[in-house]
From TrEMBL:
Protein's UniProt name: Integral membrane protein
Keywords: Membrane, Transmembrane, Transmembrane helix
Highest rank taxon of the organism: Bacteria
Membrane-spanning residues: 15-34, 55-74, 80-106, 118-141, 153-171, 178-196
Biological source species: Streptomyces capoamus
């Protein structure tokens, strides 16, 4: 175990990345636990206020992220400074992304349906960093042989091709597939060759005069969402808590 740790974590300089990921996940989990206790009115915790202003935890998160980021740039990856900076950065990133939806909407949507985006972004970020930690390099560089790496033209073609697949998948409205495709190229290839989601830039550009393609894409998207929407919501509720019910809209009597 010690040999594996030194060879795969310490020597490649991955210890700061592991510490940052661990701090990121733990900070998110602790933050969600505390906010759910505050929401339920349990425990000694409460919202932080200053002069009647609610201080969201994204504020200290930004401070920690900046401090950890600048500290990591100025530190050695193999030294104690780099490790401490990685932990600080991970904590700050966890606090910031826990309120990603608030930043996106510029509104306090933490316990609303829109607030689910924060949980999605945190899970995606943790998964992508985990892949990087496991040794996956962006656009499949790690899959190249030594001969291919020495051939600059072949390496450039491989990276460019994988980058193109990710862009096509993104244009087809498959953001998650595109993101994971940056790390795992075959994932981007699958997203690039399959039909686009309705309403995506690709569908608007290429399916305008192809009613059969539009209908097939809409049917596939409906079946996919129907199959995975409920399990996805259940997982998000378990991780982040159930959102508040939307208030009923009063009828317009004008």
């Amino acid at each position: 175990m010690g040999h594996w740790w030194v060879r795969n974590i310490v020597e490649p300089g991955k210890l700061p990345l592991l510490l940052a990921l661990t701090a990121f996940v733990l900070t998110f989990v602790v933050t969600r636990v505390v906010t759910r206790l505050i929401r339920a009115g349990r425990g000694p915790f409460g919202n932080v206020r200053a002069g009647g202003l609610h201080i969201h935890h994204v504020v200290p998160g930004v401070v920690l992220t900046l401090g950890g980021g600048f500290g990591a740039v100025a530190s050695d990856r193999h030294g104690a400074g780099g490790a401490v900076s990685a932990v600080v950065f991970g904590m700050g990133a966890g606090l910031v992304l826990d309120e990603f939806a608030l930043i996106l909407h510029l509104d306090d949507v933490y316990w609303t349906e829109d607030g689910r985006k924060s949980v999605e972004v945190v899970v995606l970020t943790a998964a992508l960093v985990g892949l990087l930690l496991a040794g996956f390099s962006p656009f499949g560089v790690n899959d190249l042989s030594q001969e291919e790496l020495q051939d600059r033209g072949g390496a450039l073609a491989t990276v460019s091709g994988n980058f193109l697949f990710s862009l096509v998948a993104l244009g087809k409205g498959k953001a998650r597939t595109a993101l994971f495709g940056v790390i795992v190229p075959l994932v981007a290839l699958v997203g690039a060759v399959r039909l686009a989601r309705p309403g995506s830039p690709w569908a608007r550009r290429f399916y305008g005069r192809r009613p059969r393609a539009r209908a097939t894409a809409a049917l596939r998207a409906y079946r996919h969402d129907r199959r995975w929407a409920r399990p996805s919501r259940a997982v998000q509720d378990w991780i982040g808590g159930k959102p508040d019910p939307r208030p009923a809209r009063l009828p317009d009597h004008r």
